[in-house]
Q: What sequence folds into this?
């Protein structure tokens, strides 16, 4: 009798072991502010795949998709409130939570350099306090923004033109006299088609993903700023994770960040594709070009510092041009 009781106890204990192991594996919910499979989501999606492959028994990411799951401009707040634990999003999409998020586009040093000079540490201090977020990694960089138009211009002047924006471009485009219209990326094609806008700001990469090349005639060169998409983790969730879970995310995030160097080839490829699609480049003379680029950065930083006098100047010191 005693042996039978002992055996049944051992069997029960052995059956309980998988449950204990399973309880140690954490599943977190993820979303991207950009459509699945598009340029701005691809590095994040690779990151998710690597975490899930390496994290069996430790951590799994349930990727629920792009803006169809959570609208682009609501992703930052979804991270802040814990609706999702992790997200792929650009700072321009959550400036209503913290205006400092828009400073990331103005970085003129790489994410790797930002880790060395204390910028990422300072960024995390602000993001922790204002967005209840842990800034994990930058997964898009090295791709400049451009103005794309349906009408030709011959100088840095957008007066009389309606230009689609996000907060990325607002200060700069308004300084050039544009009438600005803010829309989510999914609405841009129809806005161009219906003549609601005469152009838009977007990085050099990604317009083919969205079909915008079909309605675009001109691109203004050179580019300006530095397109940014980053991975944020809900801070409450981050603090509850085990050391092993955080280490896994950090390891794969750094691997994703290291892949940013590959964007140089994507930039070159998209420049060729745009030319083949009939998109003409607009270039100003040397003096006007300098005026254009200087205006981009001067208005960009002024906007940040006006909205965040506490953090704007220090961010400029850490990530701006040396």
A:
């Amino acid at each position: 009798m005693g042996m039978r009781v002992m055996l049944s106890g051992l069997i029960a204990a052995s059956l309980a072991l998988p449950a204990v192991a399973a309880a140690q594996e954490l599943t977190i919910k993820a979303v991207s502010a950009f459509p699945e499979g598009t340029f701005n989501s691809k590095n994040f999606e690779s990151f998710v795949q690597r975490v899930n492959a390496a994290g069996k028994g430790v951590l799994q990411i349930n990727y629920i998709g792009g803006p169809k799951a959570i609208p682009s401009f609501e992703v930052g707040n979804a991270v802040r409130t814990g609706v999702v634990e992790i997200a792929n999003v650009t700072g321009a999409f959550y400036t209503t939570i913290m205006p400092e998020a828009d400073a990331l586009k103005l970085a003129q040093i790489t994410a790797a350099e930002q880790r060395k000079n204390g910028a990422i540490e300072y960024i995390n201090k602000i993001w922790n306090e204002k967005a209840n977020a842990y800034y994990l990694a930058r997964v898009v960089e090295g791709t400049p923004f451009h103005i794309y138009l349906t009408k030709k211009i011959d100088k840095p002047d957008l007066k009389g033109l309606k230009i689609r924006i996000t907060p990325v471009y607002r200060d700069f485009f308004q300084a050039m006299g544009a009438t600005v219209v803010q829309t989510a990326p999914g609405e841009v094609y129809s806005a161009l088609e219906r003549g609601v806008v005469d152009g838009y700001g977007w990085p050099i990469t990604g317009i083919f993903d969205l079909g915008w090349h079909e309605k675009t005639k001109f691109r203004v060169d050179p580019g300006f700023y530095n397109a940014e998409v980053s991975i944020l983790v809900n801070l409450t969730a981050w603090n509850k994770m085990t050391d092993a879970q955080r280490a896994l995310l950090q390891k794969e995030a750094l691997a994703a960040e290291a892949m940013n160097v590959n964007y140089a080839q994507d930039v070159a490829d998209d420049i060729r594709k745009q030319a083949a699609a009939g998109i003409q480049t607009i270039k100003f003379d040397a003096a006007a070009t300098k005026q254009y680029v200087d205006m981009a950065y001067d208005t960009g930083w002024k906007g940040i510092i006006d909205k965040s006098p506490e953090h704007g100047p220090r961010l400029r010191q850490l990530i701006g041009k040396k």
Summary: The longest strand covers residues 133-140. The two ends are 80 Å apart (CA to CA).
